[in-house]
Design a protein that fits this description.
single chain, alpha/beta, Nucleotidyltransferase, domain 5, 10 helices
């Protein structure tokens, strides 16, 4: 399975008002493993960035002035993403800008070049309702270092998002992913590369811990004027 983790940087927030893409960064995953076959390009947007956007990405008009225009990278970019499953954080934003760039070149919409688009922001909101689900917040939640992220960058953010996505979906790993056709039949359904389960270590509560637990339980009993739920669960 080929997946592309994608991010863009832009001159502003609204492609309909003329804002343009200034950077595209992609990280390739094959069978959930980074391959190193990444795609990255700065883009000359032929206009200035809005002040707020410039503060986020730091890519000045002067820096971008000698970079290729989008039409110069469009074919290479389309070949790279062709048929892949695309992973984006807040997908409508990036896809909206890509659709606008494609439209200028009379190219079919982004979705027509790829397999499907996965929005990790939607996934994160479903998994962590009521929590902050920005890329930085998810890096903190999953223990992924983003200390080097002083400014936003498309390739850097795609690399971080790839780590976040793999952490978020770790339970979806298939232990038989490498078994196909005759290999799968000859294996008799055995799981490929499955590590043996570790011994389960059970630590029993000490007498002091049990006494402290009972104190808490009595306090809860007093608050509910009866037996708290934990005593009911323990009895069962």
């Amino acid at each position: 399975m080929r997946q592309i983790v994608l991010d863009t940087e832009t001159t502003g927030l609204n492609p309909r008002s003329g804002d343009r893409i200034i950077e595209v960064g992609c990280v390739e995953l094959v069978n959930r493993r980074p391959t190193g076959n990444n795609f990255h390009s700065y883009v000359n947007p032929e206009r200035d960035s809005e002040e707020g956007a410039l503060a986020v990405h730091g890519l000045t008009t002067e820096f971008l002035s000698d970079k290729p225009k989008f039409f110069e990278i469009a074919d290479e970019f389309r070949d790279y993403i062709n048929g892949a499953e695309i992973i984006i954080h807040n997908a409508p934003f990036d896809v909206g800008f890509l659709d606008a760039e494609f439209s200028r070149l009379n190219i079919p919409r982004f979705a027509e070049h790829v397999g499907r688009v996965i929005d990790t922001l939607v996934q994160a909101k479903e998994m962590h309702p009521g929590k902050r689900n920005s890329l930085d917040a998810l890096c903190d939640r999953y223990g992924i270092s983003n200390a080097h992220r002083a400014l936003h960058g498309a390739l850097l953010d795609a690399e971080l998002l790839a780590e976040v996505y793999l952490a978020m979906t770790r339970g979806q790993n298939s232990l038989t992913i490498d078994l196909t056709g005759d290999d799968a039949d000859s294996a008799g359904g055995d799981r490929a590369d499955a590590a043996p389960l570790a011994d389960i270590i059970m630590l029993r509560a000490t007498a002091d811990e049990l006494a402290e637990h009972e104190t808490v339980m009595k306090s809860l009993d007093k608050e509910v004027r009866g037996n708290c739920l934990w005593r009911t669960v323990s009895a069962n």
